[in-house]
Amino acid sequence: MLKPTLESFQQRLFNNFAIGKFYANVDPIFGDAEDHRAVVALIRQYFPDADIHEPETPGFCQAVKRNWSATSADYVLHLEDDWRLNVNIDQSAFADFSDMRVAQVAFHSEEKNWDVQRRGKLHYRRKNLKLFGFNLPLKHKVPVFTTSPSLLRGDFARHAASLFDTRLDPEKQFYNGINDGLERYVAPFLSTLLSSSNGFVVTDLGRDWREQRGIKKSIENGASVWVS
Fold this sequence. Notes:
four-stranded mixed sheet, alpha+beta, Spore Coat Polysaccharide Biosynthesis Protein SpsA, Chain A, two-stranded parallel ribbon
């Protein structure tokens, strides 16, 4: 999965920018020592000076927290290892940041289940009020921040990382009522979706990979769990 991910991002994004620093986390999961070395070598092909962290035990949120915290740039590209970039990304992708409330511009994918043409590019969800067994949507909009491929304001990413509870899924604690401090911090900000008339901006490669191997991802007590 990592090879087509880096190939597509090199062709359609990396080549269009001056990359300041590349931070990577390679967890000991879903492979043996040879696979681990191959992943590190592949990263080095694209970024010889990459800062690669190789922890002894895997930790999804800990990986995101470390990488976001290590950055120093005004804008940060967040990337996972299992996405293919389908369209060219250039400076125009930063247009939404002209609004100082926008903290993240996420790359639109099928999994987001969001009709940009009908609902607009502002990505949000409504909180529900449970009454007599029914969930009633409230007018209040909660911004949806994500750990799928996206651009972030650097200071936002670093401060959010400082508030992460590493026991929990990093994305879910933005809005699921399990990290009050983080939710209070992100509440004034906005998240938008970068879309394309040529289809989804990114394609998730990991779902098919997991299905082929009988691996299921679930959320248990706010934490991500992968089970064979």
